Inverse folding.
């Protein structure tokens, strides 16, 4: 089936559209854009730059996808934005490509849902099955794992990492890395515990949940410095896949400190 393009929309020469694409009124598609099959741009959508969007995308009015980064260090260098399959991008959302200050790439996985007025800044790496609620703001160079849920109005500092299956509460101000399965709340955000609801929904077995809870307590709620506690937990429970994921995330910490519980100390 051929594409259905409204007469008021502008598709620049060079743009590549997949089969059965529907483009509503007053959209603008740039010359380097690749848009996957069965995608729908409802109206007033602009897709620019070296942007590749997978199949089954749904993009709503006044979304701006692929325009140059909002970064004073950007000087027109080559960059790209890649968005996976079956992503929904709601009204007013902005998603920017990368810069030479990183690898020049912003990458978003499959089955992601960006609610109205969300923002993904330059050089971010976003996993699969991620939900950004209304007005979530993620600054440059952030890494967001798979199955992460961000509550409305949450803001994330540049270079932060958010681990797989984490939950970030509404209006949270995230300054530090959030462990996999962590639940971050408040402004400034603190680690409120594990995302137990998310763990159960994703099919994590009871034994792994109990081990993860013990690992959390041993790492964050003891008098042992965090670095030493991590080594002890690794000896005791490092063979559990959930615990191992948390430990690897902590050990890989670089640019930012860890988000920790309110009553705690960094080790």
């Amino acid at each position: 089936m051929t594409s259905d393009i409204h007469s008021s929309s502008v598709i620049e020469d060079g743009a590549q559209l997949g089969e059965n694409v529907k483009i509503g009124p007053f959209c603008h598609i740039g010359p380097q854009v690749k848009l996957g099959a069965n995608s729908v741009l409802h109206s007033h959508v602009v897709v620019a730059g070296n942007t590749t969007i997978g199949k089954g995308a749904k993009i709503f009015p006044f979304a701006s996808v692929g325009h140059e980064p909002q970064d004073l260090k950007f000087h027109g260098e080559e960059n790209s934005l890649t968005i996976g399959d079956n992503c929904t991008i709601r009204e007013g959302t902005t998603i920017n490509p990368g810069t030479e200050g990183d690898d020049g790439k912003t990458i978003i996985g499959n089955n992601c849902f960006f609610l109205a007025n969300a923002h993904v800044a330059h050089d971010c790496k976003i996993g699969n099955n991620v939900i950004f609620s209304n007005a979530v703001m993620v600054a440059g160079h952030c890494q967001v794992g798979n199955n992460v849920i961000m509550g409305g109005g949450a803001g994330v500092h540049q270079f932060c990492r958010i681990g797989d299956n984490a939950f970030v509460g509404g209006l949270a101000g995230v300054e530090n890395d959030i462990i996999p399965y962590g639940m971050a709340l408040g402004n400034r955000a603190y680690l409120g515990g594990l995302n137990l609801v998310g763990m159960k929904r994703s099919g994590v077995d009871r034994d792994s949940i109990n081990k993860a809870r013990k690992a959390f307590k041993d790492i964050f709620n003891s008098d042992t410095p965090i670095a030493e506690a991590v080594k002890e937990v690794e000896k005791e429970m490092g063979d559990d896949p959930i615990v191992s994921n948390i430990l690897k995330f902590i050990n890989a910490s670089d640019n930012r400190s860890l988000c920790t519980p309110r009553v705690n100390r960094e080790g």
